[in-house]
Amino acid sequence: MKKNLLLLLLGFFCTQYSFGQTKTWAGTTTDWHTAANWSPTGVPSAANDVVINTGAINPIISSNVSAKSINISVAGASLTVNSGAILTVSNAGTALQINNGGLTNNGTVLITNTNPTEVSQEAAVLLTFSAIITNTGTITVNGGANYGIRMAGSTINNQSGGVITSNGKELIRFGDSNAILNNNAGATLNGTSPATAITLIPGKLNNNGLIDITGSLELYNSNSRLRNLGCGIIKMVGDYYTQSGATTENDGLLQIDGSLNNFGSTSNDGVIRANAYPTLTNHNLLINNNAANNAIFTPFTNSYLSAVQGIFLNAAATVSAGTYTSNNNTFTPGNFSGGTYTLYAKISYDGCTFIVPFSYIRAPTRRYVKTAAAGSGDGSSWANASGDIQAMINASSTNDSVWVASGVYIPLYDGTGNANPANVRHKIFYMKSGVKLFGGFAGTETSFSQRDFKTNRTVFSGDADNNDTNTDGNFISESYTDIQGNNSYHVLGVISCDKLTRIDGITFTAGKSGTTGDPSQTVGSGSLSTVFGPAISIAGAFPTVANCVFIGNDGYYGTTYHNNVNGTDTVRINNSYYLNNRAQFGGGMFIHRGHTLIDNVVLVNNAVFRSNAYRNGGAIAISSNMQVGKIVKFTNMTIVNNSPSSTKAIEIDGDADISIINSIIWNETAVAGGNVNRVSGAGGSLTSSYSLLQNSGAGSSWNGGYGTDGGNNYDGDPLFTNLSDINGADNKFFTTDDGLTLTGCSPGVNTGTNTNVFATDITHSPRPYNSGIADIGAYERQAAATLTTIPTNVSVNKTVICPGNTLTLSAQCSAGTITWYNQATGGTAIGTGNNLNQSPTVNTVYYSACEVGNCKSERVATAEIIISMVSANINLTASISGTAIYASSNTITATNKVLGTANAQYLANNSISLNAGFETSSGAVFTARATPVTACN
Predict the structure, then answer these.
(1) Where on the phi/psi map is residue 480: left (φ > 0), alpha (ψ -120 to 50), or beta?
(2) Over the stretch 71-122, which tens digit does the pLDDT of each residue have?
(3) Whose CA is closest to 690, among 666, 669, 664?
(4) 3-state DSSP assignment of residue 484
(5) DSSP H helical segments within 478-620, as ranges?
(6) CATH annotation of 792-866
(7) How far apart are CA 378 and CA 577, in angstroms?
(8) Which secondary-structure segment (H or E) carries 664?
């Protein structure tokens, strides 16, 4: 047994020794794979270092082999890898070193330095002393933390069909003026470095093929030269440096995703594209990123621009991006969206063709519309304004805008472009995805900031046959009752439009829906039911609607109808008014499906009238089709006078999660259960917070009709400036004199939340004012609150009484009347004045406020009044954890514990005995007092 173990161990050590030995070429034939050609005998494996130090007969690899390292160390010595063979060399250090000898590769060579530590000057491949590599196959070098290839006094010839890939700290470092790399026509050199890809200090790099690298390229000093010849292409991601004394000569394409830096000599007889250019000698073309349409190309002379064969949207140069005119060096972009693009210039000269990518900013196009066309009418300026809104929308692309001057506009066509449809009610404006439609211009503005949509009203009217009641001559239906004859089913359609689509600064009036029996109408490539949204019908779209007024429309489902088909994006309605509209479902807005955000919106005097009776949802209705998980959020809304008769302003069905935040619902018809109707069986959730809600019972008995009490709600008069004059003395909406602004003592001032609110209110004034706390409602008061000073010396003459006994409330006001309440907010006053007597029957806290007219101060609480029975003799044994008062007309005997959370009083007429077992814990508040106590009457 011992003998066998000894033999096993000897065999193991011998194997290990043989496995790691150096193999030296001693070939009598050229066959690498013959064991007798090596000393010691045996074909090298992945564990063997290989030395080739004779040039008499050189080895040839004809199938797959491996080695730990290879050292070719004498002149005339060489190694050849035949086509189809693979040589793999992997070492924790230099894997291939050639001094004087050579490597010819027609197959595949894989060379790796596995050393994870950076070592000065270490490389996976080291070439010195007239070493030469000739490649027509594939060479892959992985330098890891160290250089890929270092070369001095040596040459690499990458021939046609050859591919050299080098990765590492640097791909290639040239060490002297005799270090030369020739990347010939049809050859490829590529690789990736974390910083510098190729450094010549000095060296010579000649390219007639393709070099594609990541990392900077630096010609470090004199005798460093790069020549990009003929149809050679150099592509690099990184900066290019030609230092003092160095030379760059470009005859092909030098494509730099970085800056071109020249401190030596750089000349261009080909094409260069870089992010930035120094002073250089240009004899052909430079391509400029993000340039103006007449500055994309910088030619030596304009005659060189004839090489530009076009500018394209794709790398194959098959889809034109527009028209390039060489005689004036101008690019006219085609009809594609505004934004930043990579375009491709096709350039041909001297038998070479290059497709060169460059960055291009397509400025959004602005088109102009007036009520009557001007000049050429092409919409290119106010002076050449079009009179056709739909034509300008149709001509636009994503991020383009259409500016519409003040005036009244009635649709000219139906949704197919027919100016004379059989049914005039099919006439409609409709949006194109990503286009921005702005109204509110005087017709002279040169910048968007000059727009005053509050003064310059752009009106889109559905009065298709021009016969609506127009007593005041403004062509706006102040009420749906002004509508006469045949009016458009929809003033504006928004079908399959993305979230970049915007409608802003327009008054929509006189739209009139059809009935359920009317057929749908074709609009562009889609269709709309005639019953959905007489002002705006949104179908499968996610627009933003802002700074708009919806007035005097007569709908079936809403004045605006929102259906984003349960998509993942959101319909947004901001800074807008709904006034005097009517529908059969959702007098203001009907939200059918999908995420919806409503901010800074006023709804006044809208109604639902169906089957000859007013119904719920005069302001808003949410459909039963709303799916689980959809979010509907109402923030800083003001909803007033939308429920005539015994109806509710909002009707909610479906399964959405709905929030009412910083909002006012007021002056609606008082209805049991508040002014929100949740249809029986509706799922999802409804939460109201930081809002002033009529009939909500906030502060006392919460009304579940408003969903979950999210806190900080109020049930009381918002104290509007003038409810009877919605647009104020200036007769302009969106201004600070509007009637629904808040007075200084409104309970809505400084009582909202600043979380997730717009930075401005409906008038575009700052929210919150003076960096304070946001107001409730659509308007932010732009002045300090004028709340009445709070009461002082608030007190009660007794804090412990028997049930039904009388106490006296006292307080003082510096101005106004002392008013008393039995709840912190809301509720009805229980009395006024100092020395008010009350007879509570349960533990109670009273609250006092100073009130001047409609202005009320914050309420100040009294101490809590405890109702306590008086007993003759009391014996306490049970532990006390809360607030408790024990009163005896005779004696109290205590053996109990007063715990740390307790606030306890023992009051006795004769004596209090704290006997063995009595204990007060840390944190407890305990009072024992012998004091006159009489029995309760």
Answers:
(1) alpha
(2) 999 999 999 999 999 999 999 999 999 999 999 999 999 999 999 999 999 9
(3) 664
(4) coil
(5) none
(6) 2.60.40.10
(7) 33
(8) strand 664-666
